Amino acid sequence: MDLIYTDKNNVEIGVLKNYELDLAFGSDENNFELVVASDDNVLVIGSHFYFESTEYGGVVDAIAIDTEKSEITYTGRTWHGILANKVIVPKKNTDYMTLTGEANKVISKLITSCGLGDLFYVLNEDSGFYID
After folding, report:
1. Are the C-beta atoms of 10 and 118 separated by less than 8 Å?
2. What is the pTM of this model?
3. Residues 6+ apart with CB under 8 A from 63
4. Cα 21 from chain centre
């Protein structure tokens, strides 16, 4: 499976070949560590990487260079980590946000309301589930 990487504007650049990747998920983690040889330094702060059509990927928040090992270590938040740091805020003068409707449309509204519409997409297809 190809590990695709982007620039900081989320424009696909290529496929990362030789790397070590540790992705962590859970209530207290949701981060990653990606290690490459110094010669393979292709990411910058804000770059994304992902395995296409999976939930695995993230955004680079920090870069560390180990000159003794000739390695670059990228660290940051996984997609789960990005979502975990968002807060759903109800409209002004309301105490709650209530959404009903077809599940994919509801999820799409939530993603958009969190300002993540450029990073995440939701299928337009009818999921067969209705949120009431």
Report:
1. yes
2. 0.84
3. 43, 44, 45, 72, 73, 74, 75
4. 15
